[in-house]
Design goal:
With 417 residues, the protein is of the alpha+beta class. Among the domains are: 2-91, Rossmann fold (3-Layer(aba) Sandwich); 119-183, Dna Ligase, domain 1, CATH 3.30.1490.20. Helices cover 29% and strands 29% of the residues. The protein has helices at residues 10-20, 49-58, 70-73, 78-84, 94-101, 103-112, 126-133, 158-170, 236-256, 289-293, 301-309, 386-398, and strands at residues 2-7, 27-32, 42-43, 63-66, 89-90, 120-123, 139-143, 152-155, 179-183, 189-197, 200-203, 207-209, 212-214, 218-221, 226-230, 262-272, 275-282, 297-299, 318-320, 324-331, 344-345, 355-358, 361-363, 369-371, 375-383. A 5-stranded parallel β-sheet has the order 3-2-1-4-5. A 5-stranded antiparallel β-sheet has the order 12-15-20-25-22. Strands 6-9-7-8 form a 4-stranded antiparallel β-sheet, with helices on both faces. A hairpin with a 5-residue loop joins strand 23 (361-363) and strand 24 (369-371). The protein is globular and about 55 Å long. The protein starts with a strand and ends in a 19-residue tail after the last helix. The mean pLDDT is 96. The structure holds adenosine monophosphate (AMP) and glycine (GLY). Adenosine monophosphate is lined by residues 118, 140, 149, 152, 154, 182-185, 189, 211, 268, 279-280.
Length: 417
């Protein structure tokens, strides 16, 4: 089997590894990839979506796996182009990927399908937004488009709301777009992933990510400073409710509304006192949740995705480890406001019962690695208990160093017990 993964971050490194380790030993390619990914997958020469799909066609690629969302929604859409060329794609077409690309579209979909979610109003101007907030704080403001995880502000007061609204409407930090004013929910968050294949689905191991930069959930929001995954993260009762009240109606809604879907769907949920509610959909796996979840997936992920892309749910091909997995992100100096490239990374030669995925690194000509991005590495380990996984992941993370390294010490610990 020849397959190609699209993306370049830590999530894609984890996907590439999991797919390459599948029993059939598929030949894995990646675009645009990274130096670390190219230790496992082969690079390809393409300079955009059209040439990428033309390359897949010319090289008889059996399966395209979408890692990151941008390719699914930009231009003609990765899955749409694959479909046009008869290439099976694990990842939804553009129309369905709007569930992630437009928060307003997602909100309307949720409401139409009676799926529990926070109340929201779409606004076009600062004045309209303030009117919708109506003095009720805390409030949640969301830029209606892709903003790399930075388009959401939970505002405790009017000053913080005005700062965000000024960034969106006056400074146009994310480009043109509306703002959703949303009711502020509370409760633990959980990321639930399902492989969706038309009217069927399989729920993967749930996870929780840590979005704030510093210990104790302090500091600015980031793309994610770590994650913890386990079947036992969510009780069976709550998981049953999530399936019944959220996953099933979502799958049914996609069918009813003529939105084709074959790929991973990520449900960002809040477990409120009134039950689980949807905060967001993403039309791909989470990052860094993927790095925590993939080591728990056993079996033949490559054939599972290929069968899925061809419309068949092969639940028999994979199982999920019953234990815990913890992923600690090592970020570069300045992250998340900026990032510093070129710091030498040491300790990568260490091996043990852990995995290291590269999110933002570059290999130098002398074979050493340097930082090349905000989130640099993901160190992942597992255990039968959460405590064991936590201890192993943090001990492994201690082995790696670079100037300016930032990491959290409470990944897998905070928000438990
Ligand atoms: P999102 O980009 O939609 O995942 O939002 C980022 C983060 O903002 C979420 O993980 C939550 O912590 C928070 N958030 C989003 N929506 C709400 C809400 N309605 N109530 C409370 N917190 C929220
Ligand atoms: N971990 C959050 C995300 O992937 O969007």
């Amino acid at each position: 089997m020849k397959l190609l993964v699209v993306g370049k971050g830590g999530r894609e490194h984890a996907l590439v590894k999991a797919l390459a380790e599948s029993p059939g030993k598929p030949e894995v390619f990646c675009f645009p990839g990274s130096d670390a990914i190219f230790e496992t997958a082969k690079p390809i020469a393409a300079d955009g979506l059209e040439s990428l799909v033309a390359w897949m066609k010319a090289n008889s690629i059996d399966l395209c796996v979408a890692g990151e969302e941008s390719y699914l929604v930009k231009g003609p859409g990765l899955a749409n182009l694959c479909a046009r060329h008869g290439i099976p794609c694990w990842g939804p077409p553009k129309e369905s990927a709007r569930l992630e690309a437009s928060k307003e579209f997602a909100k309307q979909f949720l409401v139409r399908n009676n799926i529990p979610t926070a109340r929201a109003t779409a606004t076009d101007t600062l004045e309209e937004a303030l009117a919708a907030i109506a003095g009720e704080y805390p409030t949640v403001l969301k830029y209606d488009g892709l903003a790399a995880g930075k388009g959401v502000a939970v505002c405790p007061d009017e000053t913080s709301a005005l700062t965000f609204l000024d960034e969106v409407f006056t400074q146009r930090r994310f480009g043109a777009g509306r703002v959703l004013v949303e009711q502020c929910l509370s409760g633990p968050e959980v990321s639930v992933f399902a492989a969706i294949i038309d009217d069927q689905y399989l729920v993967f191991t749930p996870a929780r990510d840590y979005k704030r930069a510093r210990d104790g959930d302090l500091g600015p929001n980031t793309g994610g400073m770590g994650a913890v995954a386990s079947r036992r993260l969510v009780s069976q009762d709550v998981m049953a409710r999530i399936e019944q009240e959220i996953v099933r109606p979502t799958v049914a809604g996609l069918r009813k509304e003529g939105l084709p879907y074959r790929g991973f769907l990520y449900f960002g949920l809040m477990l409120t006192p009134h039950g689980p509610q949807v905060i967001e959909y993403n039309c791909r796996f989470g990052d860094p949740e993927c790095q925590a979840v993939m080591p728990l997936v056993k079996g033949d992920l490559a054939t599972f995705c290929l069968a899925g892309a061809n419309g068949e749910l092969r639940s028999d091909l994979i199982t999920f480890d019953d234990g815990w997995s913890v992923c600690v992100i090592l970020a570069s100096a300045g992250y998340p406001e900026s990032s510093r490239n070129g710091d030498l990374i040491t300790g990568l030669e260490n091996t043990g019962d852990f995995r290291v995925y590269h999110a933002g690194t570059r290999k130098k000509t002398d074979g050493t690695w340097e930082t090349h991005g905000g989130r640099v590495l993901a160190v992942v380990s597992g255990g039968i208990t959460r405590q064991e996984a936590v201890a192993k992941a943090h001990t492994a993370a201690d082995l790696i160093r670079f100037d300016g390294l930032q990491r959290r010490r409470d990944i897998g610990i905070l928000n438990f017990d």
